[in-house]
Amino acid sequence: MTWGLRVETPNSVQVIARGHLKIAGRAIFLGLDDAGGVLAQGWKASMVSAGLGRLAKAPRKKSFDDPGLDAASLVYAKGAARTVGALVAHGRGARITPKRVRAGGQGFLAIPTDAAPRRGVDGRRLTPRNFPVGRFGPLKPIKTRAGRLFLIVEARISPKTGRTLGTRRPRLKSGRVASRVSSVVMFTLVPVANLPRRFDMDGQARAAQIIAPRLIDAHAVVLLAKAR
């Protein structure tokens, strides 16, 4: 994903260019470089404030000088396709659909609940495929009267913390079971999910394009003053 900054040359710079082409070209380069930096830093700050700290490392800026008046600044996201896709999804919002759909059937997204463990048996993000069956038991699908779908397990709930403890029930000295097993929802199944926008990446890009001519003008004035 890239966002290039190219703007119309301000009238004042066009006037300067008639007699000072190098100064005008340099002013355009510096102004666009500043605008690109504002955009990249704006994206990073917005991601950090939105709780997307890891993604904040992705935005990069690269500016291109030109002997004439065609300088440009490029703001882009560095990283794997998954990283870039996540940045765009959080910056614009996204509609998420299942990757795997059985032939003749409907696919579902499995969203872990607060009762589910954070990681699967392989240490990665929890899914039904890497769910720790050995600890909690097998997942069972259920459908409510309202038509909602869930994946549940039969497990113990800690009376003190409310956390899911697993399927094994310790026995007291009397031989009785210490706690009861309850149905615990581990995943909510939905056919599609809408990811809300976490920051306005396009709005910040438009703002950078708006301020770019003013930044170019400012640099042109300074450079022209130095040349006199």
Overview of the structural elements:
The protein is an alpha+beta fold and 228 residues long. The chain has two domains: 2-94 and 196-227; 98-191, no CATH class. 35% of the residues lie in helices and 23% in strands. Strands 5, 6, 7, 8 and 9 form a five-stranded antiparallel β-sheet that branches. A three-stranded antiparallel β-sheet has the order 1-3-2. Strands 4-10 form a two-stranded antiparallel sheet. β6 (140-143) and β7 (149-157) form a beta hairpin. The longest helix is centred in the first third of the chain and has 29 residues, at 21-49. The radius of gyration is 28 Å and the shape is rod-shaped. The mean pLDDT is 82.
Quick synopsis:
This protein has 228 residues and is of the alpha+beta class. The protein has five helices and ten strands; from the N terminus they run E-H-H-E-E-H-E-E-H-E-E-E-E-E-H.
What are the main properties of this structure?
228 residues, alpha+beta, 2 domains, five-stranded antiparallel β-sheet, three-stranded antiparallel β-sheet, 5 helices
Strand percentage: 15-25%
Q: Specify the overall morphology.
A: rod-shaped
Largest sheet: 5 strands, antiparallel
Write down the overall mean pLDDT: 82
The N- to C-terminal Cα distance equals: 42 Å
Q: Number of helical runs?
A: 5
Gyration radius, rounded: 28 Å
Residue runs with pLDDT of under 50 for 5 or more positions:
none
Number of self-contained structural domains: 2
Order of helices and strands: EHHEEHEEHEEEEEH
What share of residues is helical? 25-40%
Overall SS class: alpha+beta
- How many β-strand stretches? 10
